[in-house]
Amino acid sequence: MSVAFVKEPNEDQVEALPERDLGTDPNFVTARGLALIEEALSTHEAALEEARAAGDKIAMAMLNRDLRYWRARRSTAQVATPDPEGETVQFGHDVALRRAGGPIQRYRIVGIDEADPARGLVSYLSPLARQLIGKEEGDRFKINGAEAEIVGIGPEAVD
C-alpha cells in the first residue's frame, strides 16, 4: 500500500467532538437554575484560560464544546416562577407526596440542567413531574405501580 494515502497523526490536530444535545423542549429554568448556568459558564471560562496557558488542546476542545452548550442554554433560558395564587402543581413548586404507608417525600419541579433526582430536584419533563403538574393537594395518582397522595404544594426550596 502506498504511504501517500495514509493520514499521519498531527499533534496540533484534535478530533472534532460531538456537540452536546440541546434538545427541542423549551428551556424553562428557576432563578436558581439560571444562577447555576451562569456559574457553569464562569467555571468553564476559567478552566479554558488555564487549558490555553498549559497548551492542552484536548481540554480546550472539550471546554469550548461545553461553553457552546452553556451559552446556548443561557440564551434560551426562560425563567419561570409558579403563580403564588395557584393551587395546582406548577413548574418551580415543591411537592410533598406520601406513598401508601410510607414517609413523606419532597420533590421540586425544575429545569433540565438543574435536575438532580437524588436531591429531590426533578426535571419538568420527567414522568413524575408530568404526572404532578396540574394536580392539587389531596389528589391521588399511581407512581411505579403504587398509589401516592399529594399532601403539600408550595414554593419552598428542596435542598
UniProtKB/TrEMBL annotation:
<dbReference type="Pfam" id="PF01272">
    <property type="entry name" value="GreA_GreB"/>
</dbReference>
<keyword id="KW-0251">Elongation factor</keyword>
<protein>
    <submittedName>
        <fullName>Transcription elongation factor, GreA/GreB family</fullName>
    </submittedName>
</protein>
<dbReference type="InterPro" id="IPR036953">
    <property type="entry name" value="GreA/GreB_C_sf"/>
</dbReference>
<dbReference type="InterPro" id="IPR023459">
    <property type="entry name" value="Tscrpt_elong_fac_GreA/B_fam"/>
</dbReference>
<dbReference type="GO" id="GO:0003677">
    <property type="term" value="F:DNA binding"/>
</dbReference>
<dbReference type="InterPro" id="IPR001437">
    <property type="entry name" value="Tscrpt_elong_fac_GreA/B_C"/>
</dbReference>
<dbReference type="GO" id="GO:0032784">
    <property type="term" value="P:regulation of DNA-templated transcription elongation"/>
</dbReference>
<dbReference type="GO" id="GO:0003746">
    <property type="term" value="F:translation elongation factor activity"/>
</dbReference>
<keyword id="KW-0648">Protein biosynthesis</keyword>
<feature type="domain" description="Transcription elongation factor GreA/GreB C-terminal">
    <location>
        <begin position="87"/>
        <end position="146"/>
    </location>
</feature>
<dbReference type="GO" id="GO:0006354">
    <property type="term" value="P:DNA-templated transcription elongation"/>
</dbReference>
<dbReference type="GO" id="GO:0070063">
    <property type="term" value="F:RNA polymerase binding"/>
</dbReference>
